[in-house]
Amino acid sequence: MTESQEKYSLTSNRIQCGHCAIKSLMRIICEGEESYIVGDEEYGGDDIYYKWQILKCLACSRINILQYSSSSLWEYTLDGETFIRPTNTDILYPHQISEKPLELKISNEVIERAIADVEVLILSRGAVSGVDRIHTALHGYLRAICIRENLVYNKDDSIVKLFKLLRQQHPKLQSTRTQDIDRLLQSFAGILDSLNPIRNHASMAHPNENVLEKDEALFFINVVRTLLRYIDGKLI
User: Fold this and answer.
1) Which of 21, 111, 162, 177 has its CA 20 to 30 A from that of 122?
2) Residue 212 to residue 222: CA distance in whole angstroms
3) What is the pLDDT of residues 142-162, one digit of tens each?
4) Which residues are CB-contacts of 57 (< 8 A; sequence separation ≥ 6)?
């Protein structure tokens, strides 16, 4: 796990905040597993143990402490301050979660927050509200790669220019084993060129009268997710 993953790791499923009640991914501040003592007896190992996580809600920025044993959740007090536990219990059954969140090996706080915002906005306000944030995540991600690889770019460069720069100068993106994939990547430059006007004129980034419908907004978001996953996997 890279340092950025440790610093910006998110929960693998959505958790309902005990403060604002929005169910979304949360930032993992720290976590652990311990045995606990009841009276004079200590339980641990494979019998009874508890896991805990201190989580930050990315919607309201407040802290939740999540604790669970094999079958229960409860509230917890730390240093005199009470943290409200998340109110949902489906986190005990991770096999019920079908959608895997977007996880990137190359990340920073701007990227991580934008990606988490997408999840929150899709659930709370609809997919069209997430279009601007996924666009921001892609823009920030391409900049982060350029900085990581010491590629010179201008701060005002669009996502199209940054993508072309990476395709021209990063050895892992200059060519693939098949020409068909190369042509597919070349076509993505045209796709990226279409993202800006959609984001500017058909999303909630500005007070637009005509915005994307749900299916088109999800299509936009998933196109960006696909590209992010591909580049992130290719470069690491």
Assistant:
1) 162
2) 14
3) 999 999 999 999 989 999 999
4) 17, 19, 20, 22, 24, 26, 63, 64
* Average pLDDT for the chain: 75
Residue with tokens 């790669």: 145
Which residue in the block uniquely carries the two structure tokens 């290719």? 234
Query: How many C-beta neighbours within 10 Å does residue 220 have?
Result: 23
Written in H, E and C, the secondary structure of the chain is: CCHHHHHHCECCCCEECCCCCCEECEEEEEEEEECEEECCEEECCCCCCEEEEEEEECCCCCEEEEEECCCCECCEEECCEEECCCCCCHHHCHHHCCCCCCCCCCCCHHHHHHHHHHHHHHHHCCHHHHHHHHHHHHHHHHHHHHHHCCCCCCCCCCHHHHHHHHHHHCHHHHCCCCHHHHHHHHHHHHHHHHHHHHHHHHCCCCCCCCCCCHHHHHHHHHHHHHHHHHHHHHHC
Q: What pLDDT is recorded for position 3?
A: 38
Residues 163, 189 contacting (CB under 8 angstroms): yes
The two tokens of residue 101 are 């969140």
Residues 6+ apart with CB under 8 A from 73: 66, 67, 85, 86, 89, 92
> pTM of the entire structure?
0.63
Dmax of the chain from CA atoms? 69
